[in-house]
Design a protein that fits this description.
It contains 29 helices and 18 strands. With 678 residues, it is of the alpha+beta class. Helix 2 crosses helix 5 and helix 8 packs across helix 10.
């Protein structure tokens, strides 16, 4: 047993950063927004080692090279530490530190989640959309909020620099973090490491007996795990062909509900064995969503999913098919152009463009949902995002893009279906739009014009032509056109649900009339409280009828999800919207209920709400889209009284390539309620 003196053996220093938090800070690569790639099992072992180190510094346990001894099982008050402390306390027999590292490794993801949450709450890290992380501005400037801590103003990397290169005498905490980072084998990513620095790292890692025991245990578990294989032998259940064929929701195109039904029977991880298709593992549960959101960037790759689309457009890669630092760079460059503020600064244009299009509608006319709302949204989105009018070509462009998705991603059609004469004609129409985008975005033509998404892409190309070459511009510029389809279909879903719930229709109409009572509303008028019903109607629409219901990924690093091992190369289908129909996430999920999103229920905060995807590839423009769809729903109800041309017992759906309302749904413009001023 080791009995050297420890600073703060009690919880006097409980406000300071813990070793798991320090390890995460050491692994963070701020340039990419990612944590440096450490294989999953290795990272899990290191994180558990950090917890054991923290517990030893707090006087809860002690270790030597052969045993771990429990001193005090009292909770620390830290959710990242206490579950592990409790599990140690349940064991009456003493075990070695490597035994505990491996036994507790499956809990590491929970440790990581709690540690990241605390770093964000304490303003050490900023969490960006898609779960990218950077140090806060206060941390970068040295104006740290941790003034009461002995770590005030110090980054872990700065401390490690002094320890390794300035021969500073390390404290026990520094010895442990040095050993853990060394076990993760990432020092060479952080510093220029020569032989002298390597010797110093080895020397420091051996200076403290507890630190040495933990680092040795982590290294031993990484190199030759003894418990890993038995703990990961849980078989993945395979869905029977009968359950697929007779699943009513899947047959009728309600994919989220269909996958929810399978998850209720088979659990959150199951295998689909489809004829003439590679077997696929499906993730469909609350905890699998949380895992994909937080850990997908470490274990999953999107390249294979999108390479068919890249090939169709003749590009080497795109934002959608990249991961890691390159994907983060794309998102950071484009985020301002897709922000909600960018939209609300141009409200006058939004209103004018929408009214100009609606003025062409005839009262009494009946229109299919897609034919009615996709052109309405395109009349706004093309000028706002690309500064051009594409109404004449949008139908061809969308037809081509849908075919590309069906061939390249969903793979419901053979590749030659992209080369038919009609598709070649539509491909040329799409390219003409892309050419027009580029030709109208020269420097002289853009003077005094608001910056749009095309400007953002061209600026990224100009700043680094190797990162985004001209040859790779056709896909992202063409993708702008899909905005009309996605938002138009989502507004169509929302309008359908409003007409199914007349009381809500009247409440949204009342909000709209109040907004336009004295002319066009301004940015401040579109506050959450003034459009509260409309906002929650959209949220419930996105739950019950989301456009994006699933994503496909390839496992690039072996990982464990809910006790199931996913080997490298596994084809993964993440059915993130399945949770929308799980009782544990949304009680009575088949009822359209906007009160889910108001206190005290706030059901969308339970981790099961994922209408815009998960993790690093979640929708970049979701805040823009939500506001833009709300504006259109309000304008539609303000100017018209709309009816369903015919009722349906169950909404007809088109499930692929994205979930859309079927054109069997038709809306009738029964009455014009207010004049459309053009």
């Amino acid at each position: 047993m080791i009995s050297d003196s420890r600073s703060s053996p009690t919880d006097a220093g409980a406000s300071s950063l813990s070793l798991p938090e320090e390890l995460l800070l050491a692994l963070l690569d701020e340039e990419s927004g990612f944590f440096r790639q450490v294989p999953g099992w290795n990272l899990n072992c290191a994180m558990v080692g950090a917890v054991l180190g923290e517990l030893s510094l707090r006087g809860r346990i002690d270790t030597d090279l052969t045993s771990l001894i429990l001193f005090d099982s009292t909770d620390t008050g830290r959710p990242a530490l206490d579950p592990i402390l409790r599990e140690i306390a349940t064991e009456t027999k003493q075990h070695s530190v490597p035994y505990w590292v491996e036994r507790l490794a499956p809990q590491a993801e929970s440790v990581i989640s709690h540690a990241l949450d605390r770093l964000v709450r304490r303003q050490v890290l900023d969490r960006h959309p898609g779960d990218f992380y950077t140090f806060t501005k206060r941390q970068r400037s040295g104006d740290t909020p941790l003034e009461e801590d002995h770590l005030a103003g110090e980054f872990v990397k700065a401390r490690l620099t002094r320890i390794i290169f300035a021969d500073e005498i390390p404290e026990p905490r520094d010895v442990i973090i040095t050993g853990l980072v060394n076990a993760c084998n990432v020092f060479h990513h952080m510093f220029q490491i020569d032989e002298e620095a390597e010797e110093r790292i080895k020397f420091v890692s051996q200076m403290d007996l507890i630190g040495r025991a933990i680092a040795a245990a982590v290294t031993e578990s990484i190199v030759a795990p003894t418990l890993r294989r038995p703990s990961l032998t849980k078989p993945i259940p395979a869905v029977s062909l009968r359950d697929l064929v007779f699943n009513r929701e899947l047959r009728e195109g309600r994919l989220p509900a269909g996958f929810a039904g399978l998850a209720e029977k088979y659990g959150p991880v199951f295998e689909l064995r489809l004829p003439f298709r590679q077997n696929m593992i499906v993730l469909a549960g609350l905890k699998t969503n949380q895992w994909a959101h937080r850990m997908g960037r470490v274990f999953l790759r999107s390249k294979e999913y999108f390479e068919g689309v890249d090939k169709a457009y003749g590009v080497s890669r795109s934002m959608h098919s990249t991961d890691g630092a390159d994907h983060f760079r794309f998102r950071k460059s484009l985020q301002p152009a897709y922000s909600r503020r960018t939209l609300t600064r141009r409200l006058d244009e939004v209103f004018d463009l929408a009214r100009t299009h609606m003025a062409s509608w005839d009262v009494g006319a009946t229109m299919p949902v897609q034919a009615m709302l996709r052109p309405l949204l395109n009349a706004q989105s093309s000028p706002l995002l690309a500064s051009i009018d594409t109404q004449a070509e949008i139908a061809d462009a969308l037809e081509y893009k849908v075919r590309v998705l069906n061939v390249g991603i969903v793979k419901t059609m053979p590749r030659f279906m992209l080369n038919t004469l009609p598709m070649r004609r539509r491909a040329k129409a799409t390219q003409r739009i892309i050419d027009r985008m580029q030709n109208t975005h020269t420097a002289t033509q853009r003077v005094g014009m608001p910056k749009d998404v095309v400007d953002a892409y061209l600026a990224l190309h100009a700043s680094d032509p190797q990162f985004l070459p001209e040859s790779d511009l056709s896909l992202p510029l063409g993708a702008i056109l899909m905005t009309a389809m996605y938002m138009g279909d989502q507004v169509g879903f929302a309008l359908y649900w409003l007409l199914q719930n007349p009381e809500l229709y009247e409440r949204v109409t009342a909000e709209a009339d109040a907004l336009w009572a004295e002319g066009d509303p301004g940015e401040d008028d579109l506050s959450p409280d003034r459009i509260d019903v409309t906002r929650r109607v959209l949220m419930e629409t996105l739950r019950m009828s989301p456009i994006t219901v699933m994503s496909m990924r390839t496992v690039m690093n072996t990982c464990v999800v809910e006790g199931y091992e996913l080997p490298v190369g596994t084809q993964l289908l993440i059915a993130q919207a399945a949770t929308h129909y799980l009782e544990e996430a949304f009680p009575d999920p088949w009822t359209f209920d906007i009160d889910r999103y108001a206190p005290p229920r706030n059901e969308h905060r339970g981790g099961g709400y994922a209408p815009f995807g998960l993790g690093t590839h979640s929708c970049l423009g979701r805040r823009w889209a939500h506001m833009h769809m709300a504006i259109n729903l309000l304008m539609l109800t303000h100017h018209f009284r709309i009816e369903l041309a015919r009722p349906f017992k169950r909404m007809p759906m088109d499930p692929l390539p994205s979930q859309s309302p079927s054109n069997r749904i038709k809306f009738r413009l029964a009455e014009q309620r207010h004049e459309i001023r053009v």
